[in-house]
Amino acid sequence: MDSSLKNKVILVIIDGLKYQTAIEQCGFLEALVESKQARRMKMIAVLPTLSAPIYETLHTGLEPLEHGITSNDNLRESKFENIFTIAKASGLVTAATAHSFFSTLYNEDPYIPIRDQEVNDPDKAIQHGRFYSENGYTAFNIALPSDHDLMNQASMLVTRYEPHYLMIHSCSCDSIGHKFGGNSLEYSKQAWQVNDQLAQHIPFWIEKGYRILITSDHGFTDSGNHGGSSEIERWTPYYDIGHPIPGIASEDVSQLSVAPSILSILGLSIPKKMNAPLIDK
Ligand SMILES: [Zn+2]
Questions:
Q1: Is residue 106 included in any domain, yes or no?
Q2: Cα–Cα nearest to 215, from 254, 185, 189
Q3: Maximum distance among all alpha carbons in the chain?
Q4: pLDDT at 144
C-alpha cells in the first residue's frame, strides 16, 4: 500500500474541552477557520457525557445504549466494527497516542502496561500504539503526560510509520476541569496550552498530507463534572482542517457522524450500522 497517498486522517480528541472554551482559547484553530482552511462545527455529544462511552461512539458510530459501554467502569474490548478494525482489515496503517482506555477498547482487555504500553504489531487494531494512564501521580491525578510530549510523540508516529489513521488523545483539560471546574482560569489556560501545542505540529501534519479533525468527547460543568445532559456538557467543538466548505457551520452535527465520515475520507466502506449522515454532505 502506498502510504504517500492522500486520504489520511488525524483525529485529535481533547478530553473534556467544551465548545465555548475552544472558541475563546484555541486561537490557532480559529485562525484556520477565519482564513478558510478549516470548518468549525458545534458537535452534540451523545449521552451519557462520559469518556469511555464516547470514545466508543466516536469510533463505532453507535449510541452508548447500543454499543453497551455505558460507564467508565464497564470498559471492555469493543464488540463492533470500528475505524481501527475496518482500516486494519483494509490494509491501512493505524496508530494512536492515547489514554490506556483505548488500548483496552481496541487492542487487548485488560490493559497490562508492560505488554501494552508501547506496541508495534500489524495484527493489532491499533498497530502502532503509545498509551499512558492516570495512575501514579498526585491524589488529584492532574500530572498527566504533557501535551508537549504527546504531540511530539504523535509527530514521531507520523514520521516513522506514516499511518493512514492516527488518533491523538489529550487528557489534560479533563483532569484540570475536574480539579478546578469548567469556568476556572486553570481550565482556560490548559485549553490555551493544548491549542498552542497543536499550533506547533498541525502545519507539519498538513504538509504530510493529512486531513485533521479536532474535537472533544464532552464539555464540562462549572463545578467540575460531566455525564449529564446540559448544553455545557453536550456542546463540543469539531474543527475539520481540509473540509471542502471552510468557515463556521450554521448547523449542529452529531458525534454519531464522526466514524462514518472518517471512513469516507479514508476511502473505506461504511458498515450499515453506522447510519448517521456524513459530515461532508
Ligand atoms: Zn472527566
A1: yes
A2: 254
A3: 49
A4: 73
How many whole angstroms from 172 Cα to the centroid of ligand 1?
Answer: 10
pLDDT tens digits for 33-65? 999 999 999 999 999 999 999 999 999 999 999
The predicted model gives 190-215 an average pLDDT of 98
**Number of domains within the chain:** 1
C-alpha 120/C-alpha 105 separation (Å) is 17
Domain range holding 197?
A: 8-266
Ion ligand 1: residue ranges with CB closer than 5 A: 174
- Residue 70 Cα to ligand 1 midpoint, Å, equals 14
How many Å lie between the centroid of ligand 1 and the Cα of residue 180? 12
Ligand 1 center to 50 CA (angstroms): 7
- Is there a domain that residue 114 lies in? yes
CA distance to 89, 148, 164, 189, per residue, from 259 (Å): 16, 27, 14, 30
What separation in Å is there between the alpha carbon of 28 and the centre of ligand 1? 24
Q: Identify whether 63 is part of a domain.
A: yes
Quick check: 3 pLDDT over 90? no
pLDDT tens-digit series, residues 62-82: 999 999 999 999 999 999 999
Give the distance (Å) from ligand 1 centre to CA of residue 36: 32
Is the CA virtual torsion 97, 101, 102, 107 positive or negative? positive
Ligand 1 center–CA 91 separation, angstroms: 34
The alpha carbon of 219 and the centre of ligand 1 are apart by a number of angstroms equal to: 9
CATH code for the domain of 111: 3.40.720.10
pTM exceeds cut of 0.70: yes
Report how far ligand 1's centroid is from the alpha carbon of 72 (Å): 9
